Amino acid sequence: MIIDGRMVAGKRLDLVRKQVDESGVQPCLATVLIGEDPGSKMYVRMKHEACEKVHIVSVKACLPATATTMEVLAKIRELNNDPSINGILVQLPLPLQVETSRVIQAVAPEKDVDGFHPCNIGLLYAGTPRFAPCTPKGVMTLLDAYNIPIQGARTLIAGRSIDVGRPMAALLLHRDATITIAHSKTRNLKDEMRRADIVVSAVGKARFITSDMIKPGAVVIDVGINYLDGKLCGDVDFDQVKDVAGAITPVPGGVGPMTIASLMENTYLAAVERSCTNVS
Ligand code: NAD
Q1: Which of 191-200, 211-220, 231-240, 271-280 has the lowest mean pLDDT?
Q2: Which of 5, 66, 254, 273 is 20 to 30 A from 74 via CA?
Q3: 105-109 contacts, C-beta under 8 A, 24 or more apart
Q4: Any residues with Cβ below 6 Å from ligand 1, and which?
């Protein structure tokens, strides 16, 4: 079975638009783009296009590639203090001279729709997520959309990053999966992976996962975004692995669209939470 992320994301976006239209709140997302990286510019553009589709207002703050940490922090403070803005998304990665952790920690936790602030990571690990990071949240939505059993499932997550691997583990654990997190120092990755009922790969190496690493019938979720000979591909060697896996996400058209759908969900949630706070 090929898991169709575009279809599921489309349905989620339709739902967010309906919720926005019926809620009486007007969510507003601010993106912060620093520099001219073409990939970052493309992702920011896609996020603004998604906002338009779901009737979320969006504003863009652009800083030059030479911006200092202090200049970025000043911009974040301005957005934190603007009551018309519910969500702030700082497009990563930042230029080397900007201290990423200080910028992430400067975003007001209640506007941190990317879910990277330590407060939100803490809530996630406490089992009471507020804003779950968008990519892992999107993976959970995909698993649920295809009724993939999670409780008790042996799950191998390849990659331990703050934006994907670790929050993915927290979300799956919250749903009673049995988790293994593999990383660059893991021994015998193949043996670890072959035991898993669900594999989530966020390694960032093109076609790194081959069919001999997958248990027949396992669910394979490919988060990777890589380029091989100028062509977009995931971490998984899709053509081989699709014949062994029970279900698999393609790249493109798998996890990618879910990330943006989750961002829209988090922004709507931030707006609703803010409107509730204002009433009480
Ligand atoms: P990262 O570079 O921060 O993390 C990569 C992880 O892979 C590290 O934890 C590292 O320990 C692990 N790793 C490296 N070699 C390994 C090996 N041989 N075996 C097991 N683990 C190994 O990257 P990231 O930000 O987590 O992103 C990972 C991939 O996912 C990238 O391709 C990125 O572009 C993609 N991504 C996609 C989306 C999306 O929306 N689809 C979102 C975020 C990231």
Answers
A1: 271-280
A2: 273
A3: 106/73, 106/76, 106/77, 106/80, 107/76, 107/80, 108/80
A4: 135, 158-161, 163-165, 182-184, 186, 189, 202-204, 223-226, 255-256, 259
**Cα–Cα distance list, 74 to 31, 79, 86, 114, 269 (Å):** 14, 9, 17, 19, 25
Written as one letter, the residue type at 158 is A
What are the structural domains of the chain? 25-108 (3.40.50.10860), 134-256 (3.40.50.720)
Per-residue H/E/C for 189-231? HHHHHHCCCEEEECCCCCCCECHHHCCCCCEEEECCCEEECCE
Phi, psi of 279 (to 5 degrees): -70, -40
Contact (Cβ atoms closer than 8 angstroms) between residue 91 and residue 43: yes
Which of the residues are catalytic? 47, 91, 114
Tokens describing residue 100: 């990423």
Q: How far apart are the CA of 60 and the centre of ligand 1, in A?
A: 27
Q: How far is CA 183 from CA 37, 191, 215, 262, in A?
A: 27, 14, 19, 25
pLDDT at 107 over 70: yes
pTM over 0.85: yes
